[in-house]
Automatic annotation (TrEMBL):
The keyword Hydrolase does not apply. Its main location: membrane. CDD domains: HATPase, HisKA. This is Sensor-like histidine kinase SenX3. Residues 215-432 form the Histidine kinase domain. Keywords: Kinase, Membrane, Phosphoprotein, Signal, Transferase, Transmembrane, Transmembrane helix, Two-component regulatory system. Residues 57-90, 411-433 are annotated as: Disordered.
Length: 433
């Protein structure tokens, strides 16, 4: 499944980038083509306007450009194309052919502005097609020409430029296509690399979910097996009284309670995962709450021959949900009493730090192995020294405790070494006055 997800991730990224590049490169080519056509039109306009100066036409602007026509090629006052001086414009760079049409429809080249030539056959076809055409700029696709038609002082001027002058976008398109292919190849490598990195949390969650389902199924299967066995025994002895078979009834009840506890823990974790609405919070005294839990565990500690000691600062106010915080404190104390060595001790300390309340529960005894310590808050995680001294738990207590701490805006951490034992530290923000 993860492999398919990774392939979909890469394919989606590549498709998105390909579409974006195609749109951007197409826009660049269209804009370049439009600018090229505009430059051609500018060159044709300039050529026709200059040709009109000879006839005193109104569209030449009447300005003397300061140049001189080649001897014997134009009448006095006409000027050739001006170049140099960083004057801008594109007319000198675009070859144009300018012709004047007399009343007899005879075509005569305007030498001062003509920088290109036309074959006689092409010129004849162009003149025929433009005979009845309106003035202005246009194109003759069949002849591969742009044209500009103007009339001044009874003379019609025709200026022509080759369409190839506006075909620079084709070379640009090929260049951009090569760049696009190279960019897609590079992005493919990057996408494959980042897909592994981006999907790593998903892969980890998938593995944890599979382990979670397997462990939950195992923990539910065991009590169900016992319940079915007890029920089978009871059904085989219908003549006996309930009192005589109370051990099977009590065993069934115990296993059912274990299942109920496990299902309740699973539901609590599921609600936390789904980001369900936060439980009602209120200002409460954490000192009183922890003292109440310590009283509950005095008998447990005595039975396990563990000394229970505490040092609690009074009046530690926090904002939280009392049942959940009571469950959290109870989990830490139960865990400490369970794994403390015989004759050892459990120390509970509640103190105030900068804008925080810190609850530390430490027990003597064997330390949690370094390789197990990062996983003690994982669901159903089992390590000999971390979780499984007996079968009373399901490996969910510390996971729930951390979820409760985070739901209250706090943290829960663990430290363990052979010298000082194991310490779980809860930090919660203090309640605002």
């Amino acid at each position: 499944m993860l492999k398919k997800l990774r392939l979909k991730f890469v394919a989606l990224n590549m498709a998105t980038v390909a579409v974006v590049l195609a749109v951007v490169f197409t826009a660049i080519c269209v804009i370049d083509h439009q600018q090229s056509v505009a430059r051609v039109q500018e060159a044709l306009d300039a050529a026709v306007a200059h040709a009109g100066e000879t006839a005193g036409g109104p569209f030449g602007g009447g300005d003397d450009l300061g140049g001189q026509a080649p001897a014997g090629t134009a009448s006095e006052g006409a000027t050739p194309p001006e170049i140099g001086g960083k004057r801008g414009g594109s007319d000198p760079a675009t070859p144009v052919a300018v012709f004047s049409v007399s009343n007899g429809n005879a075509l005569e080249a305007v030498q001062t502005r003509t920088t290109a030539s036309l074959a006689d056959g092409v010129l004849a076809q162009a003149a025929e097609q433009l005979a009845d055409a309106p003035e202005g700029f246009g194109s003759l696709d069949g002849l591969g020409l742009f044209y500009e038609k103007r009339a001044a002082a009874g003379t019609v001027y025709l200026a022509f430029a080759d369409m190839s002058a506006a075909n620079g976008w084709q070379t640009l398109a090929l260049t951009l296509a090569g760049v696009g292919v190279a960019a897609l190849a590079a992005f493919l490598v990057i996408s494959v690399f980042f897909s592994r990195w981006a999907l790593r949390p998903v892969e980890r969650a998938w593995v944890q979910q599979r382990r979670f389902v397997a462990d939950a199924s195992h923990d539910l299967k065991t009590p169900l097996t016992v319940i079915l066995a007890n029920t089978s025994i009871l059904l085989e002895r219908p003549e006996r009284s309930v009192a005589s078979q109370s051990q099977w009834v009590e065993s069934t009840q115990h296993e059912a309670e274990q299942m109920q506890s496990l299902v309740g823990d699973l539901l609590l974790l599921a609600q936390t995962d789904e980001g369900a609405e936060k439980p009602p919070m209120e200002r409460l005294d954490l000192t009183d709450l922890v003292e109440g839990e310590l009283l509950q565990f005095e008998s447990v500690a005595f039975e396990r021959k563990v000394e229970l000691r505490s040092q609690l600062e009074p009046g530690m106010a926090v904002c939280g949900n009392a049942p959940l915080l009571r469950k959290l404190a109870g989990t830490l104390l139960d865990n400490a009493c369970k794994y403390a060595d015989e004759g050892g001790s459990v120390d509970t300390e509640l103190r105030r730090t900068a804008r925080q309340v810190e609850l530390a529960v430490r027990n003597t005894g064997s330390a949690i192995a370094p390789e197990d310590l990062p996983h003690v808050f994982d669901r159903f995680y089992r390590a000999d020294k971390a979780r499984t001294c007996d079968d009373s738990g399901h490996g969910l207590g510390l996971a729930i405790a951390r979820a409760i701490a985070e739901e209250h805006g706090g943290t829960l951490s663990a430290e363990s070494d052979e010298t000082s034992g194991t310490t779980f530290t809860l930090t919660l923000p203090t309640a605002e006055s």
